[in-house]
Amino acid sequence: MKRLTLLISVFAGLLIFCGWAFAEDKLIETEGTSSISRDDAIRQAQRSAVEQAVGVFINSQTEVENFELKKDKIFSKTQGYIKRFSVLKEKKEGDLFRIVINATVSLDKIKDDLIAMKILLDSMERPKLMVLVEEDYKSMDNLGMGIASTEMSSMLGAKGFELVDKSQVDAVMHNNQGRQALAGNANAAKALGLKFGAQYVIVGKVVAQDAGEAYPDSGLKSIQASLQLKVIQTQTGLILGSVVKNGVSAHMSPLTGATNAIQMTVQKAVDEYIVDAITNSFQGFLNNGSPLKLHITGVKSFQDSKMVITTIEKMEKVASSKKEGWNKTGGVLVLDLLYKGTSEELAEVLDGKKIGSGKIEVVDVAPERLDCNLK
After folding, report:
1. Which domain holds residue 67?
2. C-alpha to C-alpha distance for 173 and 192, rounded to whole angstroms
3. For the chain, what is the largest distance between any 2 Cα atoms, rounded to a whole number of angstroms?
4. Do 210 and 138 touch, CB atoms closer than 8 A?
5. Among the three residues 72, 99, 122, which one is the final residue of a domain in this structure?
């Protein structure tokens, strides 16, 4: 039954995720009140609609540094997020105006601002990325400068993502596991991500080639670049999709032309695909449950393990749980959860929670794992 529940949950999550990923607008019905004027009541209703739309991306339980100040910046742009609205009903109660509206809110604009202000990444606990991109130069010297990976890391870092150190990436690029990942082996990419603590691995290849003169007798070389990449979610090994981006540059120097063309492809990939793929993936997990491994020591009897499992399964935001194993000798219980939140949030709920005659103590928190002790 647990297995069936888990499969249904994952299938439903995929359906919701696919629908959400392409949702640009959200229709929201809200009410606004004001003792100042009818127009002010409408403004309050619009602000409420934007608050609900922000809630699509930000968990209300999530603590974000200086969030209140940033939240005001978001809500100050209410008019820019509301595409259209209609008044459904209104009435005046003494000096109080009460208005209900239907508002169409642009999720894309809100998401862009949440990313720009790094609010969305804060709520995601700033996922760590690993960038593995190889380069191939046709009809020109193999520059071997790592232009694509350097540019991509720089752009993603500027957006607030954490990245696996370049020296660590360089060390594995050409070993067996690195070559397998670059060849398209998702399991190899997943293993590398887990090894270096990355939640997402970006794997790709850029091909740059000299296409000859850009214009007759101009002396300018036409350098074309094509970047193909995919994003792998490390916890599940799921390939979030793939994309191809192209760029072209005319320059007297093949090196400068190649650099410019590759930069164009990377910019397109980051702005038009990578950030959306990662944030959509996280949002799907937040709405439907993300994989989280729970290790609990000090579980000394089978009855204690049943008590712990029952308590965990009844907790809010636990979409499903599956017992991976329990060992009486070591007193270790391992559960695979689908949890609608972050490991940090689950830690807050579990720490100090009473179970039978004991209570849970959280001892270690990682993005995909929580270690606890039953005292």
Report:
1. 21-122
2. 10
3. 87
4. yes
5. 122
CB-count exposure of residue 305 (10 Å: 0-12, 13-18, 19+): buried
pLDDT in tens, 191-221: 999 899 999 999 999 998 887 777 787 888 8
In one-letter notation, the amino acid at residue 295 is H
Region of residue 204 (left: phi > 0; alpha: psi -120 to 50; beta: else):
beta
For residues 145 and 278, membership in a common domain is answered with yes
For residue 230, being part of any structural domain is answered with yes
Of 54, 89, 122, which marks where a domain is finished?
A: 122
pLDDT in tens, 160-194: 889 999 999 989 988 999 999 999 899 999 999 98
The angle subtended at Cα 218 by Cα 212 and Cα 222, nearest 5°, is 30
67-75 vs 38-57: helix crossing angle, rounded to 10: 130
Distance CA 171, CA 180 (A): 14
Q: How many domains does the chain contain in total?
A: 3
What confidence score (pLDDT) does residue 143 get?
A: 64
CB within 8 Å of 102: residues ≥ 6 apart: 27, 28, 29, 85, 86, 88
- pLDDT of 65 higher than 70: no
Q: Where are the beta strands (DSSP E) in 23-74?
A: 25-34
Single pTM value for the model: 0.66
15: amino acid identity, one letter: L
The residues that bridge with 287 in the sheet, in sequence order, are: none
Q: Which residues lie below 8 Å from residue 158, measured CB to CB, with a gap of 6+?
A: none
Is residue 146 domain-shared with residue 269, that is, in the same domain?
A: yes
* Residue 83 near residue 106 (C-beta atoms within 8 A): yes
Q: Give the residue among 369, 197, 351 at the shortest CA–CA distance from 293.
A: 369
Query: In this structure, what are the phi and psi dihedrals at residue 243, rounded to the nearest 5 degrees?
Result: -150, 150
**Position 9 pLDDT exceeds 50:** no
Q: Are 344 and 361 in contact (CB under 8 A)?
A: no
What is the rounded distance in angstroms from the CA atom of residue 225 to the CA atom of residue 209? 7
Q: Which whole-number Å values give the CA distances from 197 to 156, 164, 194, 233, in the listed order? A: 17, 8, 5, 12
Residues 170, 309, single domain; the answer is: no
